[in-house]
Design goal:
The chain is an alpha+beta fold. Helices cover 46% and strands 17% of the residues. It has a domain at 121-181: Nucleotide Exchange Factor Grpe, Chain A, domain 2. The chain has helices at 20-66, 70-92, 99-118; strands at 121-124, 137-144, 152-157, 159-162, 165-168, 170-176. Strand 4 and strand 5 form a beta hairpin. Helix 2 (70-92) runs antiparallel to helix 3 (99-118). The longest helix has 47 residues, at 20-66. The radius of gyration is 40 Å and the shape is elongated.
């Protein structure tokens, strides 16, 4: 035997040789970690989606509570119209309508308005000159007027809203621009010279 024995060369510290098993284990560990990350991300998305569904359901329930009486209130609107019309007729024909009848109509109308107020049903009565809003008003006619176009000239029937939702739009007449602005009907521009 020689004095010089050959010893295997030791790699520098930190560069230990890796066996195929170690490399396979590292690869499996990396794949498992990637799957864990994917599962964690999917779980977080599912939690967020569940929270969104819960919030939407709460909003739907709140809206259902808020607007539960909508159909009922819509059915009562003609009753209010009829009572107001009866009261107007009784007021114009005071000698033909007994005072007790007028008092009864007024009381019934007052109670109905109180019930509407309690249920957050409010009248929509635009003023003349107010800007036309298609979400709250319905134009049934347009008349030439010196007023700015698309402003309300007259209210034919008041509207109603439940909270912020329109039950019935107010029926209105709106203004439109004058067609013969500054001209007389029989001006030179309107004559046919054939």
């Amino acid at each position: 035997m020689s004095d010089f024995q050959q010893t295997p060369a030791t790699p520098p510290a930190g560069d230990t040789p890796r066996s195929a098993d170690d490399q396979t284990l590292d690869k499996l560990l990396a794949e498992a970690q990637a799957r864990i990350d994917e599962q964690k991300e999917a779980w977080m998305r599912a939690v967020a989606e569940t929270e969104n569904v819960r919030k939407r359901a709460q909003a739907d329930v709140a809206a259902a509570h808020k607007f539960a009486i909508e159909r009922f209130a819509e059915g009562l609107l003609p009753v209010v119209d009829s009572l107001e019309a009866a009261l107007a007729v009784a007021g114009t024909h005071a000698e033909g309508a007994p005072q007790a009848l007028r008092d009864g109509i007024e009381l019934t109308l007052k109670q109905l308005r109180a019930a509407f107020q309690k249920a957050s049903v409010a009248e929509v009565v635009p003023a003349a000159g107010e800007r036309f809003d298609p979400h709250r008003h319905q134009a049934i006619a347009a008349v030439e007027s010196a007023a700015e176009p698309n402003t309300i000239v007259a209210v034919m029937q008041k509207g109603y809203r439940l909270h912020d939702r329109t039950l019935r739009p107010a029926l209105v007449t709106v203004s439109k621009a004058l067609e013969n602005k500054g001209r007389t009907p029989i001006s030179d521009g309107n004559l046919n010279t054939n």
